[in-house]
Amino acid sequence: MGVKQEASTLTGQDATGINDWSKNSVLMNYLPDAWNHGAEMYTIPIVITDNFSFCGCEVRYVKPCNDGPNKWTVFFAWHGDKRDEFKDSIYTELMWVQAREFVFLGAGCLGTTEILLRSREYGVPLSNRVGMNMSGNGDILAFGYNGEKTANAIGTDDEAYLKEHPVGPTISGIIDMRDEEVSPHARDGYVIEEGAVPKALAHFLQVMYDITPGHRIPRGLALLRRVDELVSRLTGDILGPWHQHGALNRTMIYLIMSHDANQGSLYLNKNKPSLEFRGVEHSIHVKQINELLATAMGKMGAEYIPNPFTSRQMGRSEISVHPLGGANMSPDGTGLSGVTNHLGQVFKGDGDEVYEGLVVVDAAVIPSSLGVNPFATITALAERTIETLAGQKGWEIDYALPKSNFVLRNLVDH
């Protein structure tokens, strides 16, 4: 799309945003493609660090226009020009922009659902299902602590270290347990992937492991291996988490995507979003996966540590990097059972009438856990929506690259 893709710097920093131009994110494809075809993009750089700017427009709610050629008004708080210094008025004295045809909500599962909830508060008729039956995609976090081999799974930006010990991208391997012979029922399937901890959390890891209950120590370890474990723990404590023979650098990070029961909900509490997930870590399915992981860790001589965030010491929090739903597709084509139709168009209430120009094109429409990373599913649904709506309008989508591509990187860097 006109953006030069670089080789990965192998830092393992993906979880906090990898800015080495190696990742196939929208910055490498959809955004430059839109720019090349004439789309206007606005950024208000209020924070500039290492040539990366952050947009300062925070959409609060949308409302349909009652007259004129425009169909929707989008109200937003602008944080540019230090406007957020005025804490009493930043969210009351809003700015706005109008759309003639469509407003596409793509603020992510949490952002889009919050916008819809607030829009309903401001009088826009919507389904009562907004914010309900959200999913964490059955995500599970687990660790194989102080195993027999070096895992090298802690991110860093130390170039000298990376030359000798490249961490690599997060998730470059997968164990796919969705095969019918392994999991005869679709919702029993899951995938196991390896992760990397970003540098910012490296010195917090050992404390987190220590306070997490539910450790499973491998049985039958030889005396020599037990001594080796103790030495590696002491080595890490003295020489730091990146030392090749330290316990932390022998720790694998496991990311599991499975299934849950859509027990999450997002609602407004004093005009602020509040998210609740209930009980996913206690489901039978999750316990079975934890047992399997504990057995696997034991085979590698590693101590199994479950998700620390579900412990009392960490506040019994759920953790998910793939929240889904909140504006769920309706299974029966009405607002009684969902928030959007099969194209992501938002229902006007509990019936089948929709706002044709208000369309959700992100994870908020996905009505169930997927048991795998949801990126491809979100993308496929969004592309299907755009293609179908364009066809209904009689518009043709030009899929050819322009002869002279604008390199979006220049826009970001300068």
Write the layout of secondary structure elements.
Elements: H1 30-36, E1 48-49, E2 52-53, E3 57-64, E4 72-78, E5 95-99, E6 103-105, H2 108-121, E7 140-145, H3 159-164, E8 174-177, E9 190-195, H4 205-211, H5 223-239, E10 252-257, E11 265-269, E12 272-276, H6 284-299, E13 303-305, E14 345-347, E15 354-360, H7 375-393, H8 408-413
Parallel strand pairs: 6-15
Antiparallel strand pairs: 1-2, 3-4, 4-5, 7-10, 7-13, 8-9, 9-10, 11-12, 14-15
Describe this structure in words.
The chain has 414 residues and is an alpha+beta fold. It has 2 domains: 23-135 and 323-413, FAD/NAD(P)-binding domain (3-Layer(bba) Sandwich), CATH 3.50.50; 140-267 and 275-314, no CATH class. Helices cover 22% and strands 17% of the residues. The chain has 8 helices and 15 strands. The protein has helices spanning 30-36, 108-121, 159-164, 205-211, 223-239, 284-299, 375-393, 408-413, and strands spanning 48-49, 52-53, 57-64, 72-78, 95-99, 103-105, 140-145, 174-177, 190-195, 252-257, 265-269, 272-276, 303-305, 345-347, 354-360. The strands form 5 sheets. A 5-stranded antiparallel sheet has the order 8-9-10-7-13, with helices on one face. Strands 3-4-5 form a 3-stranded antiparallel sheet. A hairpin with a 2-residue loop joins β1 and β2.
